[in-house]
Amino acid sequence: MKVLKINKDDWANGLKKLGESCRLLGPLKDGEFHNFKELGQGELPDFNFRNTRLSPKSIVYPQSEKMFDYTLDQNDPNHNILKEAEKDYSPQVVLGIRPCDAKALSLVKLNFDTPEYQDTYWLKRFESTTLVGLACHNPCSNCFCTSTGTGPFHPEALDMLLVEDNDQFLAQILTEKGEAIAKTAGWSTEAGSDAPAQITAMKEAAEGRMTSFISAENLKNKSAMEIYEDPYWEDVSFSCINCGTCTYLCPTCWCFDVQDETCGNCGIRMRNWDSCMYPLFSLHGSGHNPRGQKLQRVRQRFMHKLKYFLDKYDEGIQCVGCGRCVRYCPVNIDIRRVCELMNRSEACPVTI
Amino acid sequence: MLEYTEKIREISKQLLKECKVDMVIGFRKGTVPMMNEPTFIKSADEVGQLVWDSNCGINLANYLTNRKENIGIIAKGCDSRNICVHLVENKIRREQLHIIGVPCKGMIDKTKIADLFGKEILNVEEDGESIVVEGDGTAKVYKKKDVLQENCAICIHRNPVIYDDLVGDLVEEQKDVDRYEDVRKIEAMVPDQRWNYFDDLLKNCIRCYACRNACPLCYCPTCFVDESRPQWVGKSIDPTDTRTFHFLRAYHCAGRCTDCGACERACPVNIKVRTFTKKLEKDVKELFNFEAGLNPDVRPPLDVYKTQDPEDFIK
Predict the structure, then answer these.
(1) How far is residue A206's CA from residue A268's CA, in Å, rounded to a whole number?
(2) Is the minimum CB–CB distance between B81 and chain A shorter than 8 Å?
(3) Peptide bond before residue B230 is cis, with ω within 30 degrees of 0
(4) pLDDT tens, residue by residue, A197-234
(5) Contact residues, chain A, for B58 at CB < 8 Å
(6) Residue B235: closest C-alpha in chain A
(7) Is the pTM of this model over 0.80?
(8) Which of A86, A124, B126, B152 has the most C-beta neighbours closer than 10 Å?
(9) Given CB atoms, is A313 within the 8 Å cutoff of chain B?
(10) Domain hosting residue A101, numbered range
(11) Is residue A318 part of a domain?
(12) With 80 as the cut, is the pLDDT of residue B313 above it?
């Protein structure tokens, strides 16, 4: 694998060149935390962060996205026609995405790119995006990525992986897209032959710093109905306030709601993130709500992430261990604890 | 705090043993620093899970709404005031409740402490009036009074206003507190300034509704933002809709809000949500000389008509 060496000057100069041909996005601190934002001209991403408060999923999948324009004017020749909204799919480069969040995109892709259905909005934007990952030297104490099929240096879904090494980056080129942006940026200095071994050593050190783990090995063979009917759901769901924090911060939650909005005769149809924690999420037109109770909604979220997704795609659980929901749930519902309960093999009620 | 925990367990055990209540609602120890989880205990054998410390900032009155059981509930000053509001608004009946009152010296502000500490916090312990914060290889000690949640720092009702048991001696209430310094600053702004201030305040909102849902006042079967026949408010993150949500919600809380701070504590993106509710709290205090939740027999001023209601605004 090709490994480049990028020093600070090369980094800044390279981003300047890259910025001429594509949009650049990276973590920036605004107030108390970092989030991914478009970088202004000459602006450098701020890598002095553990991870961003919100996941970078909105880069590919905006919280609100216009799909169609329409008119209510009956005299307009376009009346009753949904016109596809113009969108910007010009190339963009995401700088400093953590490996867990990149892995999340590959999990979401399983849902948005199936043999039967392709979500063109998501896919077009994903394809126009180049992902430059930033290896995690110091995982947070409540991150558990190594238990979810990813890890602090995991290359999946990335086009390039940056590894901070004192005042320079070692950059693993992982795909042709990665190769292309390195070329555009003018990053061409090959790292020494010991670079791969050096990266492996740093990867192992980072993995050694992980302190949080989950076990999910029994979930595949347990019956969904058995878990569904387990006795702990009342206890797990009691504190839930049915807000959307876990789903909106989660890099792998993908559900959306379609809404029409009109102003005068102009209308738009858009989609907005939705959350299975909201009662409205599953409310039928008839007024019936199959998940009218909080317990049902909380159970749904964990069943989807840790069981249904696994059963459907056989690609592991729908969680990358980024720890955001663990850190920011207002009432401290902890997916690690729930996973442990679901994964227990004995059928008898557990002491909680 | 340890004494409070022991007393809470003792009272809860007794209540459950004697079948005086079907469940006790309290807190269990959280899985991350500075967080506890609201929980319910149904068996006397399980009271050992109940804890009390300075991380019990979520308002437990929120868990009482429309419940049918007989409930023991742990209530600090603000929880007890919201229980009063619930009683006034018929969300629970007094005879269903056994209120285990907790004289409170304030909850600590996890965001403020995280900022002060500057790196990842691995453990937080309380030692009397000190908060010991540990990170990777370092520890710092803060005075609890310096790291209180903002609403707790200016709280003037630390003792429960209604209770059946107390877990400790009543604490001294804070006197000469200026509750509205921040509100006055915003009132003094010229309109453009104020507009920008609110724009900036709400710019990170993701419409997750954690503020609304952590609030014991927000129990409407269908919130106005969820109303779809017809739809009142857009559901995107258009700033107009986001502002509409926050402003209207605050107005809906006027004369009912106890400034418990649960909304602000719950926000995942650190929005100072109390900015809105406090302005209305100040107005209600000035116009009607009323503070919410102090008396379960008095209806809030915007809920009743009195001939002597102020009407200076009618020109």
Answers:
(1) 47
(2) no
(3) yes
(4) 999 999 999 999 999 999 999 999 999 999 999 999 99
(5) 239, 330-331
(6) A272
(7) yes
(8) B152
(9) no
(10) 3-61+85-208
(11) yes
(12) no
